[in-house]
Design brief:
By secondary structure, the chain is of the alpha/beta class. Helix content is about 15%, strand content about 25%. It has a domain at about 5-140: Hexapeptide repeat proteins (UDP N-Acetylglucosamine Acyltransferase, domain 1, 3 Solenoid), CATH 2.160.10.10. It is elongated.
């Protein structure tokens, strides 16, 4: 049966798998379901509606499923809540807020790492194997695709989409959609691409050259974005190119390129995660 420390406060509506561990001074409120192998180490605060999958590791003072930080939301409103996948780690003081709408929950996928004070706002849709470093903040409604790295004390604006494998360097941010494998090195500037991340994922030299071509097309060629999109379409049929075409087709905000970069700054070298 679940191991619940005597100092923990667990709502009668909470459903726990047989081997869940609830540590000292944890508080679980509302309709919450927690899967097998999940551990709440101590002082965790959870609010439902909330579903947490298997083998998640929650460290002290993390807050999951709490009300959105907006003046127009009644914190007593439950809504569809929050859905957490499997094998995620939420380190100290990290937080995930529940949905502000009536239909879809905030979603966090599998094998993600939230470091100390990492934050995902209401209605964020996060994939798998994402790293949210210390103090990084993700605004509401943002879409974070698989394998993204968000550096320490960086910021992702609400409604932004971050493409597969892209990287946000520490202490910067973006209010623009970031194409897969691009690296944001200054505010709203994609100054490089994630070549080390590509290598770690086992991409071939040919595939990396394709990503390099796309990066140079959008960020170094001097072409307007519309013209770059047209040239990208000329290579449709290549699996990697098709991923970029699909991403652009789903983008709701302008794309993050090199526009706005100060000319006096040296161009950063190709970087990686």
């Amino acid at each position: 049966m679940p191991r619940i420390h005597p100092t923990a406060i667990v709502d009668s509506r909470v459903e726990l798998a047989e081997d869940v561990e609830i540590g000292p001074y944890c508080i679980l409120e509302g309709r919450i379901r927690i899967g097998e192998g999940t551990r709440l180490r101590s002082h965790c605060f959870l609010q439902g509606p909330l579903t947490i999958g298997t083998r998640n590791d929650l460290w002290p003072f993390c807050c999951i499923g709490v009300a959105p930080q907006t003046l127009h939301f009644d914190p007593r409103q439950e809504g569809p809540g929050t859905l957490i996948g499997n094998e995620n780690v939420f380190r100290e003081h990290s937080s995930v807020h529940r949905s502000i709408h009536d239909t879809e929950p905030t979603r966090i996928g599998n094998r993600n790492l939230f470091m100390d004070s990492g934050h995902a706002g209401h209605d964020v849709q996060m994939g798998n194997e994402v790293v949210v470093a210390n103090g990084a903040a993700i605004g509401g409604h943002a879409i974070i695709e698989d394998g993204v790295i968000i550096g320490g004390n960086s910021a992702v604006h609400q409604f932004v989409r971050l493409g597969h494998g892209c990287m946000i360097s520490g202490t910067v941010g973006t209010a623009l959609d970031v194409l897969p494998w691009f690296t944001v090195t200054l505010l709203n500037v994609a100054g490089s691409f994630n070549i080390i991340g590509l290598r770690r994922r086992g991409f071939s030299s040919e595939a990396i050259d394709t990503v390099r071509w796309v990066y140079r097309l959008f960020c170094r060629s001097g072409l307007p974005v519309a013209a770059a999109k047209a040239k990208l379409q000329e290579r449709a049929g290549d699996p990697i190119i098709d991923q970029y075409i699909a991403f652009i087709g789903q983008a709701n905000r302008p794309l993050c390129t090199m526009r706005g970069r100060k000319q006096s700054m040296r161009e950063p070298a190709e970087s990686g995660s």
